[in-house]
Amino acid sequence: MPNLENCPRCGGIFIKALRSVCDKCHREIDQMYQTVYTFIRKRDNRKATLQEVVEATGVSEDYILQFIREGRLQLAQFPNLAYPCDLCGAMIREGKICSSCRNDMSKDLKRYKEQEELAERNQAQEKVKQTTYHLFDNDVKRK
């Protein structure tokens, strides 16, 4: 259901339904996208880095990164464009995290799983100890 909200970009009031900004700001963002896209589509500019695109177009790095994350700019066509990893900030070309962070997360998950399995084994052993009965015949004395 649409809500009446203030535009986070300009502060104007708009009905938030499909977009998170007002129509005026949406048109401005689309214009910035067209500026960036037109610049990097030229054969001479396809190998431009993110900083070079920012300097040449005047569009802020945040908006260019937003276009990449939204999938509006496909990095396969532009070999020198990249965006930061969500965890460490290293420049990447696909996904949300870099291979180093992905490996660290995999190691941490594996270690956590091993600790959980060890805790389960220890619990099972404690349970066995609690239900084991030892009978001693104190009346029988051996000579």
What labels describe this entry?
about 140 residues, mainly alpha, two-stranded antiparallel sheet, about 50% helix
Written as H for each helix and E for each strand, in order along the chain, the element string is EEHHHEEH
Rg of Cα set: 30 Å
CA-to-CA gap between the ends? 91 Å
Q: What does the overall shape look like?
A: elongated
Annotation field: number of helices = 4
Strand tally? 4
- As laid out across the biggest beta sheet, the strand order is 1-2
Flag low-confidence runs.
none
Helicity range:
40-55%
The proportion of strand residues reads 5-15%
Helix/strand class: mainly alpha
Q: What is the residue-averaged pLDDT?
A: 86
What about the largest sheet? 2 strands, antiparallel
Keywords: Coiled coil
Organism: Alkalihalobacterium chitinilyticum
InterPro entries: Flagellar_operon_YvyF
Protein name: Flagellar protein
Topology readout:
Layout lengths: L2 E4 L6 E4 L6 H19 L8 H8 L3 H9 L13 E2 L6 E2 L6 H33 L12
Antiparallel strand pairs: 1-2, 3-4
